[in-house]
UniProtKB/TrEMBL annotation:
GO molecular function, one term: lyase activity
Transmembrane segments: none
Secretion signal span: 1-32
Protein name: Pectate lyase superfamily protein
Assigned keywords, A-Z: Lyase, Signal
Organism: Paraurantiacibacter namhicola
């Protein structure tokens, strides 16, 4: 396997709508080797063998192949006193309607009407089969209006652990030039006015003394990355239909083989968090057991990593809820000041945690600190989302500590710190057919996130810096994450058909540098293109192909892979 160094510079582009001569040459070479516009990464046996590409098509509800269900049984919030547009607070009534849903048998839809409801408490969803629905997210639809942030609301103890963690480890936002030195806000990446969780669930872990014993359901002797058949080592306690987690622990320290599996022969710095907590899984894959034949187990989606005596793994119990949906409404926050990064007041829309097979669909969010935050999810579809307003958000839709999450058709029109974020320990997740308008970033957030896909994303940019040769530069992959979680990502994060549209400060024919200097090894970049000549500066070196042109034969890698299952 190659050693990954400081990165190479790749040039390509368009001029006035015509592909440059260099790009035409590259395209011709790619076409000759791979057929009419089909990338070699998908067609050429040697290229495929030398450059592993995960199958991303299992992301989303029902492993990407089942439609989001319609739930007909209904609880009407009006029956519990929630009346829109009456100027009164609706929190008690909305909570009462949800309480009734928690007592109902079978799936149930909690239905809101057209108009604006006022919400000043957290709406908890802690049972499978509950759908919170409105009449639509646009004109004539349903609005939830939150006049106060989470820092003025009783969270019932839900924020106690993260608050203690921030104090104990002195996690602070320090900006000397702005005279700012404060503890991080507990709402920067946690909490929402709509909050799903398994009852009593601890879906984000901060303090080690609160860690709960992991219930081992069987040690796995063998498994091959990308396949779905495993061999148990001895007896196991799993049955067909069980939804469990496969846990990989790094108990071998700084140079453990699991780190090699994630990062390959990366010669940069690996942060200490990768080995500091050996009893916490470094990689988790939630999956469903589809067949059991003796000690041979079949799972519902391809393995993230090989399993062997050198890289051991086990099945573990996963507490979760399922068939939970949020759909057809908007979340509206008041005009509110921006206090800075990690200093948010808590105008957070949704905190989606502890869900397997769920969805958020057709939801608009205005002036949020974070529109949607996620944690401890698997096979969730987040679709048809619009975030907008003048308030700068920390996240638009955050994808962190999850597996197989699909974010599809999202439009981000508000300023954000992290626009499209693959965050800590996210795997096999996808942003697809989405667009960012206001200084967007593709945030590959340090924290062992790996095997994720940006698929057919459009970004509208202006340069925010200057390359060494004086060319305008956009730091498109400006990322976050603590040093103890570096590098920015693990192997096989893939960027497919990324369109970069310069909105200003770049003349026709002038080259724009697209920078990623905080990434990680073994990335794949295919089909990067835009309305100006582009130079990709990605470190360390990615696999690249068909730069300077859109992969018209395969506009979506996710859809291409799904069609071939």
């Amino acid at each position: 396997m190659a050693t990954f160094g400081m990165g190479k510079v790749m040039k390509f582009g368009v001029l006035g709508g015509a592909v440059s001569a260099a790009a035409l040459g590259m395209a011709a070479a790619a076409g000759a080797a791979a057929g009419p516009g089909i990338p070699k990464l998908l067609t050429d046996p040697k290229t495929i063998a030398d450059n592993y590409l995960p199958d991303f098509s299992y992301a989303g509800y029902g492993y990407g192949v089942k439609p989001i269900p319609r739930v007909d049984a209904m609880i009407d919030v009006a029956d519990y006193g929630a009346i829109p547009d009456d100027g009164l607070d609706d929190s008690v009534a909305l909570k009462a309607a949800l309480a009734a849903a928690h007592e109902a048998e079978g799936p149930v839809r909690v239905q809101m009407h057209s108009g604006r409801y006022q919400l000043t408490e957290i709406l908890w969803i802690e049972k499978s089969g509950i759908v919170l629905a409105g009449m639509g997210s646009g004109a004539g639809g349903t609005q939830l209006y939150m006049p106060r942030p989470l820092n003025q609301i009783d969270g019932g103890g839900a924020f106690d652990e993260i608050k203690e963690y921030l104090v104990r480890y002195d996690k602070r936002e320090r900006q000397k030039g702005q005279n700012l030195d404060v503890l991080f806000s507990p709402y920067s990446w946690t909490g929402g006015f709509i909050w799903t969780r398994f009852p009593g669930g601890r879906h984000a872990t901060y303090l080690e003394e609160l860690d709960r014993p992991i219930e081992n359901l069987g040690n796995i002797a063998r498994g091959k990355r990308g396949t779905m058949e495993l061999t148990l080592g001895g007896t196991g306690n799993v049955s067909v239909g069980d939804v469990v987690q496969i846990n990989w622990h790094n108990r071998a320290g700084e140079n453990g083989p699991l780190i090699q599996a994630i990062y390959g022969d990366f010669d940069g710095t690996i942060g200490s968090r990768h080995w500091e907590f050996p009893e916490r899984p470094l990689v988790r894959q939630a999956t469903k057991i589809t067949a059991v034949k003796g000690n041979r187990i079949t799972i519902a989606d391809p393995l993230l990593h090989d399993i062997s005596s050198a890289v051991p793994a086990n099945f573990a119990r996963w507490d979760h809820i399922s068939e939970v949906g949020l759909q057809d409404f908007s979340l509206i926050f008041p005009d509110n000041p921006y206090f800075g990064h990690h200093n948010e007041a808590g105008y957070n829309g949704v905190y989606f945690t502890g869900v397997y097979n769920g969805w958020i669909s057709n939801v608009h969010i205005k002036d949020a600190d974070s529109a949607v935050l996620t944690d401890d999810l698997a096979n969730v579809t987040i679709r048809n989302i619009l975030t907008y307003g003048d308030h700068k958000a920390h996240y638009a839709v955050h994808v962190g500590n999850v597996h197989n999450v699909l974010v599809d058709n999202m439009t981000v029109r508000n300023p954000t710190q992290h626009t499209f974020s693959f965050n800590t320990q996210s795997t096999k997740s996808v942003y697809k057919d989405s667009e960012g308008w206001h200084e967007p970033t593709l945030d590959q957030h340090a924290g062992a996130n790996h095997q994720n896909l940006y698929d057919n994303i459009t970004v509208h940019v202006r340069p925010d810096g200057t390359a060494e040769d004086g060319s305008p530069q956009v730091y498109l992959f400006r990322a976050g994450g603590a040093g103890y979680w570096k590098p920015g990502h693990g192997g096989f994060n893939t960027i497919w058909n990324l369109k970069v549209l310069a909105e200003g400060d770049v003349a026709p024919g002038q080259e724009l540098v697209v920078l990623e200097d905080s990434g990680g090894p073994m990335a794949r970049v295919v089909g990067l293109h835009g309305n100006r000549p582009l130079r990709l500066d990605y470190r360390p070196d990615p696999y690249t192909e068909m730069l300077g042109m859109k992969v018209t034969s395969v506009p979506s890698l996710y859809e291409w892979q799904r069609a071939r299952r």
